[in-house]
Each structure stands twice: as C-alpha cells, then as structure tokens.
Amino acid sequence: MRTEALVSDYIVNGLKCPAKYNGSHYLRECVIALVYNGDQIGCLNSLYLSLAERHRTKPYNIERCIRTLTKGWWEESKCGGLFAKSPSNSELIHTIVAQVKIKMMKVG
Questions:
Q1: pLDDT (tens digit, 9 = 90+) per residue, 27-83?
Q2: CATH number for domain 3-107, candidates 1.10.10.10, 1.10.10.1100, 2.40.400.10, 3.30.70.940
C-alpha cells in the first residue's frame, strides 16, 4: 500500500478524524512529509512554512487549521483513548507518523 494511502486510511478510518475541517488535508500533508523526510520532525514551523507557500497562505493559518481539527476531533471522539487530554498539533502529528511507520513495516 502506498504511503499516501496508508496515511489517509489511518487518519480517516483509524483515528476517525473528521474531513469536514480544513486542517485535515494539511494534517495529511504534514504526516506524509514527515514519513518521507523524518529529519524535519523536530521543527514543524519549517514544515508549516513550506505548506503555506505551496497553498498560498500563511504558516499560522496552517497551524490554526490543524489545531481546529485537533480540538474538534478531540471533542467529538475523545480520540478513542489514544490521548489522556487534547493533544497538541505536534503530539498528534508525531503519533500519526509513528503509527504509519509501524504499519509500513508490517506491510513490508
């Protein structure tokens, strides 16, 4: 299974993140970028900047959209017990990256 498909499947079906939020496609792109290029994992700001340039918006809009998605997802589903409290953007992104990498190793 392709990485992009694994990421989408995990976000939509595994975590049940609602696609109704603008942040869902930004979240997906962040995770895909970090799966392919793990050296950016410590600096989400540079990742937000590159996404903002690609989408012709500001980095704080990317961050805010993902934060809104995270908050809405947390309030709607309580994350299925994955987090004890509402996760930060980086906690959510890093958790998804880790889970996708685990799934990729299982798939081969």
A1: 999 999 998 887 665 678 889 999 999 999 999 999 999 999 888 888 877 665 678
A2: 1.10.10.10
The model carries a pTM of 0.86
Task: Write down the residue that tokens 């809009």 correspond to.
Answer: 61
Question: How does 54-89 read in b/e, with b if 16+ C-beta sit within 10 Å?
Answer: eeeeebebbbbbbbebbebbbeeeebeeeeeeebeb
What is the C-alpha to C-alpha distance for residues 27 and 54, in angstroms, rounded to an integer?
14
Cα 2 → chain centroid: 17
Cα gap 25→70, rounded to integer Å: 12
Domain ranges of the chain: 3-107
- Number of CB atoms found within 10 A of residue 36's CB: 10
